[in-house]
Amino acid sequence: MLSLLIACVELLFLINLLIFAEKNKLNIIAELLIFNLMLYQILEFFICRTGTGNSWIIYVAFSTISFLPPLALLFVLNVKGVHHKLLKLIFLPPIFFTIFYLFYLNDFHLIECNIFYSVYKYPLGDFFGLFYYIPVLISIVLLIIEVIKNKRVELVVVLFGFLIMTFPVVLGFILKLFGDSSLIAAIVSVMCKSAFLFAFSIFYFAMFNKKNA
Hints:
By secondary structure, the protein is mostly helical. The chain has nine helices and two strands, in the order H-H-H-H-H-E-E-H-H-H-H.
């Protein structure tokens, strides 16, 4: 299915970065981002293969992908040259959800799975979404400011990657306003599919990033 194909391509991105990209902090964060997306796609493939009785795999998938927004924000902050010990605090929300959801494993259910996306039922969906999308939104705003100041091609590519990744979210909320919640119900899976182009943009950036940051 599509998730396995995407995971294989993201694995190729990761292997190329590990072999050819310069070893610096920014590129390491880029590699972690791609690994995070790849791992989620692999987990989604196994979720669909094992059927509905797989609450613990869904939990692991959600715990994994919950680290994507703070990693993305950390990447953008490092692009801007922001370094501070308190930046570690941006990882508190995914750590909270990882621990909290551990006590609600039986509340994770696979509702639907097809070649393009999966739909899940999970607790505190709106609360999870709030802490999930805010760091992504902040990342986009900061990146737009950085692109205006520094019109590097690599930064423009990353910005487009962010925008493409978040487009399904924006579309989902617009459709929900008109009474159609089908896209929002599958938004985690759909967003991670569109994040393939985000993974490519991060890969592209890291391959040209020669700063010892």
